[in-house]
Design brief:
The protein is mainly alpha-helical. It has helices at about 20-50, 60-90, 100-125, 125-135, 140-145, 155-160, 170-190, 195-210, 210-265, 270-280, and strands at about 1-5, 10-15. It has two domains: about 1-135 and about 240-280, no CATH class; about 140-230, no CATH class. β1 and β2 form a beta hairpin.
Amino acid sequence: MEQVVNTSSGSVAIETPGVSWGAVLAGAAAACALTLLLLSLGIGLGFAVVSPWGDRGLSSTSFEIGTGLYFIVMAMISSGLGGYLAGRLRRKSVGLETVEVQFRDTAHGFLAWAVASIVGAVLLASPASSLLGSATGGAVQAAASASQSSPMSNYADMLLRSDNRPDQQSLADTRGEITRLLTTSFRPNSEVSGTDRDYLVKTIAARTGLSQADAEKRVNDVMTQAKADLDKARKAAMHTAIWLTLSLFIGAFAAAAAAWEGGGVRDGTWGRANMRETMARSR
Protein backbone atom coordinates (compact mmCIF):
# COMPACT_ATOMS: atom_id res chain seq x y z
CA MET A 1 0.00 0.00 0.00
CA GLU A 2 1.45 3.33 -1.06
CA GLN A 3 0.98 6.51 0.99
CA VAL A 4 1.64 9.87 -0.62
CA VAL A 5 3.55 12.31 1.59
CA ASN A 6 3.90 15.96 0.61
CA THR A 7 7.41 17.32 1.14
CA SER A 8 9.20 20.52 0.14
CA SER A 9 10.56 18.78 -2.93
CA GLY A 10 7.18 17.43 -3.98
CA SER A 11 4.99 14.39 -3.35
CA VAL A 12 6.73 11.16 -2.39
CA ALA A 13 5.06 7.71 -2.47
CA ILE A 14 6.04 5.51 0.46
CA GLU A 15 5.34 1.77 0.51
CA THR A 16 3.83 0.88 3.90
CA PRO A 17 2.25 -2.38 5.10
CA GLY A 18 -1.48 -2.41 5.62
CA VAL A 19 -1.25 -4.36 8.88
CA SER A 20 1.00 -3.49 11.81
CA TRP A 21 1.53 -6.95 13.22
CA GLY A 22 3.55 -5.64 16.11
CA ALA A 23 0.53 -3.66 17.33
CA VAL A 24 -1.75 -6.65 16.74
CA LEU A 25 0.47 -9.01 18.73
CA ALA A 26 0.90 -6.45 21.51
CA GLY A 27 -2.86 -6.06 21.82
CA ALA A 28 -3.39 -9.82 21.71
CA ALA A 29 -0.79 -10.40 24.44
CA ALA A 30 -2.41 -7.80 26.67
CA ALA A 31 -5.85 -9.33 26.06
CA CYS A 32 -4.62 -12.84 26.92
CA ALA A 33 -2.89 -11.66 30.09
CA LEU A 34 -5.96 -9.75 31.28
CA THR A 35 -8.20 -12.71 30.42
CA LEU A 36 -6.03 -14.96 32.59
CA LEU A 37 -6.22 -12.44 35.42
CA LEU A 38 -9.99 -12.10 35.19
CA LEU A 39 -10.41 -15.85 34.82
CA SER A 40 -8.48 -16.42 38.06
CA LEU A 41 -10.63 -13.79 39.76
CA GLY A 42 -13.77 -15.42 38.42
CA ILE A 43 -12.75 -18.82 39.78
CA GLY A 44 -12.17 -17.28 43.20
CA LEU A 45 -15.53 -15.52 43.12
CA GLY A 46 -17.20 -18.73 41.99
CA PHE A 47 -15.86 -20.68 44.96
CA ALA A 48 -16.95 -17.82 47.22
CA VAL A 49 -20.62 -17.88 46.16
CA VAL A 50 -21.20 -21.65 45.92
CA SER A 51 -21.60 -24.05 48.79
CA PRO A 52 -21.72 -27.84 49.11
CA TRP A 53 -24.78 -27.43 51.34
CA GLY A 54 -28.09 -27.25 49.52
CA ASP A 55 -29.55 -24.41 51.60
CA ARG A 56 -26.55 -22.09 51.18
CA GLY A 57 -24.94 -20.24 48.31
CA LEU A 58 -26.35 -19.57 44.88
CA SER A 59 -28.64 -21.96 43.10
CA SER A 60 -27.37 -23.80 40.04
CA THR A 61 -29.48 -21.60 37.74
CA SER A 62 -28.25 -18.37 39.29
CA PHE A 63 -24.67 -19.61 39.19
CA GLU A 64 -25.00 -20.54 35.52
CA ILE A 65 -26.44 -17.14 34.57
CA GLY A 66 -23.85 -15.32 36.69
CA THR A 67 -21.04 -17.30 35.04
CA GLY A 68 -22.37 -16.47 31.57
CA LEU A 69 -22.60 -12.76 32.38
CA TYR A 70 -19.10 -12.83 33.82
CA PHE A 71 -17.84 -14.38 30.58
CA ILE A 72 -19.36 -11.47 28.68
CA VAL A 73 -17.92 -8.82 31.01
CA MET A 74 -14.52 -10.53 30.91
CA ALA A 75 -14.59 -10.58 27.11
CA MET A 76 -15.57 -6.92 26.92
CA ILE A 77 -12.80 -5.77 29.28
CA SER A 78 -9.95 -7.91 27.95
CA SER A 79 -10.87 -7.52 24.27
CA GLY A 80 -11.44 -3.81 24.73
CA LEU A 81 -7.97 -3.35 26.21
CA GLY A 82 -6.35 -5.44 23.49
CA GLY A 83 -8.21 -3.61 20.72
CA TYR A 84 -7.39 -0.19 22.17
CA LEU A 85 -3.69 -0.99 22.33
CA ALA A 86 -3.73 -2.39 18.79
CA GLY A 87 -5.38 0.76 17.45
CA ARG A 88 -3.30 3.16 19.51
CA LEU A 89 0.04 1.49 18.72
CA ARG A 90 -0.69 1.02 15.04
CA ARG A 91 1.47 2.96 12.61
CA LYS A 92 -0.23 6.24 11.75
CA SER A 93 -1.64 6.38 8.24
CA VAL A 94 -0.74 9.41 6.15
CA GLY A 95 -2.58 10.55 3.05
CA LEU A 96 -5.60 8.29 3.56
CA GLU A 97 -9.24 9.24 3.92
CA THR A 98 -10.82 9.23 7.37
CA VAL A 99 -13.06 6.27 6.53
CA GLU A 100 -10.06 4.19 5.44
CA VAL A 101 -8.13 5.08 8.61
CA GLN A 102 -11.09 4.08 10.76
CA PHE A 103 -11.45 0.82 8.88
CA ARG A 104 -7.79 -0.04 9.44
CA ASP A 105 -8.04 0.79 13.12
CA THR A 106 -11.08 -1.44 13.64
CA ALA A 107 -9.47 -4.17 11.55
CA HIS A 108 -6.43 -4.11 13.83
CA GLY A 109 -8.69 -4.44 16.85
CA PHE A 110 -10.47 -7.38 15.27
CA LEU A 111 -7.16 -9.05 14.39
CA ALA A 112 -5.91 -8.57 17.96
CA TRP A 113 -9.11 -10.23 19.23
CA ALA A 114 -8.72 -13.09 16.73
CA VAL A 115 -5.10 -13.78 17.68
CA ALA A 116 -5.93 -13.60 21.40
CA SER A 117 -8.88 -15.98 20.92
CA ILE A 118 -6.77 -18.53 19.02
CA VAL A 119 -3.91 -18.38 21.52
CA GLY A 120 -6.35 -18.59 24.43
CA ALA A 121 -8.12 -21.57 22.88
CA VAL A 122 -4.82 -23.40 22.43
CA LEU A 123 -3.56 -22.63 25.93
CA LEU A 124 -6.89 -23.38 27.63
CA ALA A 125 -7.79 -26.47 25.59
CA SER A 126 -6.62 -28.97 28.21
CA PRO A 127 -8.11 -27.17 31.25
CA ALA A 128 -11.37 -26.65 29.38
CA SER A 129 -11.57 -30.33 28.52
CA SER A 130 -11.02 -31.23 32.17
CA LEU A 131 -13.72 -28.82 33.31
CA LEU A 132 -16.14 -30.10 30.70
CA GLY A 133 -15.46 -33.68 31.72
CA SER A 134 -16.14 -32.77 35.35
CA ALA A 135 -19.37 -31.03 34.39
CA THR A 136 -20.75 -34.07 32.61
CA GLY A 137 -20.55 -36.10 35.81
CA GLY A 138 -18.66 -39.06 37.12
CA ALA A 139 -21.09 -41.53 35.61
CA VAL A 140 -20.26 -40.43 32.08
CA GLN A 141 -16.53 -40.54 32.78
CA ALA A 142 -16.78 -44.02 34.23
CA ALA A 143 -18.80 -45.19 31.24
CA ALA A 144 -16.32 -43.66 28.81
CA SER A 145 -13.33 -45.27 30.51
CA ALA A 146 -15.10 -48.61 30.63
CA SER A 147 -16.01 -48.46 26.96
CA GLN A 148 -12.42 -47.62 26.01
CA SER A 149 -10.97 -50.58 27.93
CA SER A 150 -11.50 -52.97 25.01
CA PRO A 151 -13.95 -53.06 22.09
CA MET A 152 -14.54 -56.77 22.75
CA SER A 153 -15.16 -56.53 26.51
CA ASN A 154 -18.93 -56.48 26.16
CA TYR A 155 -18.93 -59.51 23.84
CA ALA A 156 -16.77 -61.42 26.31
CA ASP A 157 -19.20 -60.51 29.09
CA MET A 158 -22.11 -61.83 27.01
CA LEU A 159 -20.34 -65.13 26.39
CA LEU A 160 -19.45 -65.64 30.07
CA ARG A 161 -22.84 -64.77 31.57
CA SER A 162 -24.14 -67.28 34.08
CA ASP A 163 -27.01 -67.36 36.54
CA ASN A 164 -24.73 -68.78 39.23
CA ARG A 165 -21.71 -66.55 38.64
CA PRO A 166 -22.73 -63.32 40.50
CA ASP A 167 -22.21 -64.98 43.89
CA GLN A 168 -18.68 -65.97 42.88
CA GLN A 169 -17.70 -62.62 41.40
CA SER A 170 -16.01 -59.87 43.34
CA LEU A 171 -17.84 -56.59 43.69
CA ALA A 172 -15.27 -54.86 41.44
CA ASP A 173 -15.79 -57.41 38.67
CA THR A 174 -19.56 -57.09 38.90
CA ARG A 175 -19.34 -53.31 38.91
CA GLY A 176 -17.12 -53.34 35.81
CA GLU A 177 -19.43 -55.73 33.99
CA ILE A 178 -22.51 -53.62 34.76
CA THR A 179 -20.68 -50.45 33.67
CA ARG A 180 -19.77 -51.99 30.33
CA LEU A 181 -23.29 -53.33 29.89
CA LEU A 182 -24.85 -49.91 30.52
CA THR A 183 -22.32 -48.17 28.26
CA THR A 184 -22.91 -50.35 25.21
CA SER A 185 -26.66 -50.68 25.74
CA PHE A 186 -27.27 -46.97 26.27
CA ARG A 187 -25.53 -45.92 23.04
CA PRO A 188 -27.97 -46.97 20.31
CA ASN A 189 -31.40 -46.62 21.93
CA SER A 190 -30.83 -44.63 25.14
CA GLU A 191 -32.38 -47.62 26.89
CA VAL A 192 -31.22 -50.97 28.23
CA SER A 193 -32.35 -53.75 25.87
CA GLY A 194 -34.60 -56.59 27.01
CA THR A 195 -31.99 -59.33 27.38
CA ASP A 196 -29.48 -57.04 29.06
CA ARG A 197 -32.20 -55.69 31.33
CA ASP A 198 -33.23 -59.13 32.49
CA TYR A 199 -29.63 -60.05 33.24
CA LEU A 200 -29.11 -56.72 35.03
CA VAL A 201 -32.16 -57.26 37.25
CA LYS A 202 -31.05 -60.83 38.04
CA THR A 203 -27.53 -59.65 38.92
CA ILE A 204 -28.80 -56.87 41.19
CA ALA A 205 -31.15 -59.27 42.95
CA ALA A 206 -28.33 -61.78 43.53
CA ARG A 207 -25.89 -59.15 44.77
CA THR A 208 -28.26 -57.18 47.04
CA GLY A 209 -30.64 -59.88 48.22
CA LEU A 210 -33.65 -57.99 46.90
CA SER A 211 -36.64 -59.70 45.42
CA GLN A 212 -37.08 -59.77 41.66
CA ALA A 213 -39.72 -57.01 41.78
CA ASP A 214 -37.66 -54.78 44.08
CA ALA A 215 -34.55 -55.29 41.95
CA GLU A 216 -36.48 -54.37 38.81
CA LYS A 217 -37.86 -51.24 40.54
CA ARG A 218 -34.35 -50.24 41.58
CA VAL A 219 -33.11 -50.69 38.01
CA ASN A 220 -35.98 -48.52 36.71
CA ASP A 221 -35.28 -45.80 39.28
CA VAL A 222 -31.54 -45.76 38.56
CA MET A 223 -32.10 -45.68 34.80
CA THR A 224 -34.47 -42.74 35.20
CA GLN A 225 -31.95 -40.92 37.38
CA ALA A 226 -29.13 -41.62 34.91
CA LYS A 227 -31.17 -40.22 32.02
CA ALA A 228 -32.05 -37.12 34.04
CA ASP A 229 -28.40 -36.54 34.98
CA LEU A 230 -27.23 -37.01 31.40
CA ASP A 231 -29.89 -34.63 30.11
CA LYS A 232 -28.92 -32.09 32.77
CA ALA A 233 -25.27 -32.36 31.74
CA ARG A 234 -26.27 -31.91 28.09
CA LYS A 235 -28.22 -28.75 28.87
CA ALA A 236 -25.38 -27.37 30.99
CA ALA A 237 -22.90 -27.94 28.15
CA MET A 238 -25.32 -26.34 25.68
CA HIS A 239 -25.83 -23.24 27.84
CA THR A 240 -22.09 -22.91 28.40
CA ALA A 241 -21.45 -23.07 24.65
CA ILE A 242 -24.11 -20.41 24.01
CA TRP A 243 -22.67 -18.08 26.67
CA LEU A 244 -19.15 -18.55 25.27
CA THR A 245 -20.33 -17.84 21.72
CA LEU A 246 -22.14 -14.70 22.86
CA SER A 247 -19.08 -13.52 24.79
CA LEU A 248 -16.90 -14.06 21.70
CA PHE A 249 -19.21 -11.97 19.53
CA ILE A 250 -19.32 -9.18 22.10
CA GLY A 251 -15.56 -9.39 22.58
CA ALA A 252 -14.97 -8.96 18.84
CA PHE A 253 -17.22 -5.91 18.76
CA ALA A 254 -15.57 -4.43 21.86
CA ALA A 255 -12.09 -4.93 20.38
CA ALA A 256 -13.03 -3.24 17.10
CA ALA A 257 -14.76 -0.32 18.85
CA ALA A 258 -11.86 0.17 21.28
CA ALA A 259 -9.36 0.09 18.41
CA TRP A 260 -11.37 2.83 16.68
CA GLU A 261 -11.13 4.89 19.84
CA GLY A 262 -7.42 4.17 20.18
CA GLY A 263 -6.79 5.25 16.61
CA GLY A 264 -8.77 8.43 17.17
CA VAL A 265 -6.73 9.26 20.26
CA ARG A 266 -3.54 8.54 18.33
CA ASP A 267 -4.53 10.91 15.52
CA GLY A 268 -6.11 13.49 17.83
CA THR A 269 -9.53 13.11 16.24
CA TRP A 270 -11.32 11.46 19.16
CA GLY A 271 -13.76 13.54 21.17
CA ARG A 272 -16.79 15.64 20.50
CA ALA A 273 -14.90 18.84 19.69
CA ASN A 274 -12.57 17.13 17.23
CA MET A 275 -15.44 15.25 15.65
CA ARG A 276 -17.41 18.47 15.16
CA GLU A 277 -14.37 20.05 13.54
CA THR A 278 -14.01 17.04 11.25
CA MET A 279 -17.66 17.21 10.24
CA ALA A 280 -17.38 20.94 9.64
CA ARG A 281 -14.37 20.43 7.36
CA SER A 282 -16.19 17.72 5.42
CA ARG A 283 -19.05 20.13 4.72
